[in-house]
Amino acid sequence: MNKKVAVVILNWNGREKGLLEKYLPSVVKYSSNAEVWVVDNHSEDDSLQFIKENFVTVKTIALDKNYGFTGGYNRALFQIDADYFVLLNDDVEVTFKWIKPIIDLMEKDETIAVCQPKLLSFKDKKKFEYAGAAGGYIDYLGYPFCAGRIFEHIEQDKGQYNTTREIFWATGAAMFVRAEIFKSFNGLDEDFFAHMEEIDFCWRVKNAGYKVMYCPDSTVYHYGGATLNKVNPKKTYLNFRNNLLLLYKNLPEKKLKSVFRKRKYLDLLAAIVFRFTTSKEEYQAVLQARKDFKAMIPEFKKKRSKNISTYPSCVMHKSLVLKSKIFKKNTFSVKDVSK
Question: What kind of architecture, by CATH, is found in domain 5-222?
Answer without folding.
Answer: Alpha-Beta Complex (3.90)
